[in-house]
Amino acid sequence: MVILEDKAGLRSFQIFVRYPIPNGTKVLLNLHANGTMAATDNDGSQDIGELVYACSLKHLPPVVLTCLLPRSYPSTCAPYFTISAKWLDEPKVSYLCAMFDEIWTELPGQEVVYRWVDWLNSSSWSCISLNDNIIFVPDGTSDVADEHAIARKLLVDSTIPLMQNYNEKRSQELFLKNLHECGICLSENTGINFIKLPCHHLFCMKCMESHCRIHVKEGNLTMLICPDTTCRSPLPPSILKSILGDDCYMRWESFATQKLLDTMPDLVYCPRCDAACLEVDNDAQCPECFFTFCALCKERRHVGKECLTPAEKISILRERHKKYSLPEKQLLKEQREINELLDVCEVLRNSKQCPSCKMAISKTYGCNKMTCRNCGKFFCYRCNKAISGYNHFWYGDCLLFEDNNQGRRFGIFEEPDDEEDADDDEDVDDGEDLEELEPELVRLYPCPICGRRNEKFSTNNHILCIGCRGHYCALCRKRVLRSSEHYGPRGCQQHTNP
């Protein structure tokens, strides 16, 4: 309620009535050109074919009641009033005004403003909606327009975007006022201290700022995602700009640009001035110094000749150092080039290149499903092909793990502590060795796909592999797609003694 200034000694005010609309209230358009409502079946259900879905709203613009109380109110005169609902058509607003006149007729000489507002809150929703859905008909006017009604003057196509804008604005206002819990530190605070991500997860400003600054400082852009472990949606630049300062945001832009350039397969850098160049058939020309070079070996363009390998280039440079007395500046430059080539040889010897961005990646332990930290893509470390999940290891020729002794790699069995324990093991009989040193070996069954050894659950031969999440049979060591088909009178027994 808003108290307005007195006019000629008369009191005036405005009351804003907001409807608590049900969740998922839809705005529908009626396609009938004559403005009649959509047809309904005998059971009262709507004929959906006559309606077009427009949008869903959580908040509607308020209905504004403006009143001016005359001096003789409430004894003889009713309040002067107007009802403004600029998103409703004229017939509906006129109906609300007619109901106000009817209430005054039923209660002459009594104060009716409260009764009017109570009727708007409790009973007018059924006049506006149909089955909790708001249906807009083509624009038209009633035969007898009520002078108290202020309805929409715009077309329906223009009114709906205005309602959507109000819905977003109202939702943001309530978000800033209400208390929320941070998904990282679990503290509660008002929404003005929170950030709402496009994925609708909420985190406080302090946690999000720390989360983003750490990864930008380390240059790990693939981790600039929603901190919720079930979401992992990337953070848009607008969110990052609001969280990071100017310096940190410029650093992120530099990293993002460099990362984008690194993922372009036809982009190389000039070996003389480091300018970006476009590669065409393994050859490129620098736009800055106009040096034409081979994109593979970074030497002058050599048509019809094979590129020198890094080892051959190292051999040639070292031979030059022995034969010629080079200036110190040239000597340092070539020695730096030799060191870089040695690093390249070492990297290529113990790593694989990501098939998407060509970043060199080395595997130290674990399975053959690799995740590139530069571009975030998955690939198989064994065949170097881009993959999306574990199906590549189920249906292809590649194994998820290289060796079959997965029990030791995952800590199921203990390794000998020193060489003396290993020597003592040689004097023990094979049968005693299995029973005493590795008593669990007889109860572990290797997975036919990844090689990990898993234990049977009681007498059930149907095993779920912990490594690759695949199902297989402990008796025949074959993959089980359907338990009812694999086990039975003509197949393996599902339950046997351990």
From TrEMBL:
Main enzyme class: transferase
Keyword Lipid metabolism: no
Region span, Disordered: 413-434
InterPro entries attached to this UniProt entry: E3_UB_ligase_RBR, IBR_dom, RWD_dom, TRIAD_supradom, UBQ-conjugating_enzyme/RWD, Znf_RING, Znf_RING/FYVE/PHD, Znf_RING_CS
Catalytic function, reaction form: [E2 ubiquitin-conjugating enzyme]-S-ubiquitinyl-L-cysteine + [acceptor protein]-L-lysine = [E2 ubiquitin-conjugating enzyme]-L-cysteine + [acceptor protein]-N(6)-ubiquitinyl-L-lysine
Family: Belongs to the RBR family. Ariadne subfamily.
Keywords from the named record: Metal-binding, Repeat, Transferase, Ubl conjugation pathway, Zinc, Zinc-finger
Naturally occurring in which organism (per UniProt): Urochloa decumbens
GO molecular function: ubiquitin protein ligase activity; zinc ion binding
Start and end residues of each RWD domain: 1-127
Signal peptide: none
The protein's name: RBR-type E3 ubiquitin transferase
Enzyme Commission number(s) of this protein: 2.3.2.31
General function of this protein: Might act as an E3 ubiquitin-protein ligase, or as part of E3 complex, which accepts ubiquitin from specific E2 ubiquitin-conjugating enzymes and then transfers it to substrates.
Residue ranges occupied by any RING-type domain in the UniProt entry: 178-402, 182-227
Segments of skewed composition (Acidic residues): 414-434
Cofactor(s) it depends on: Zn(2+)
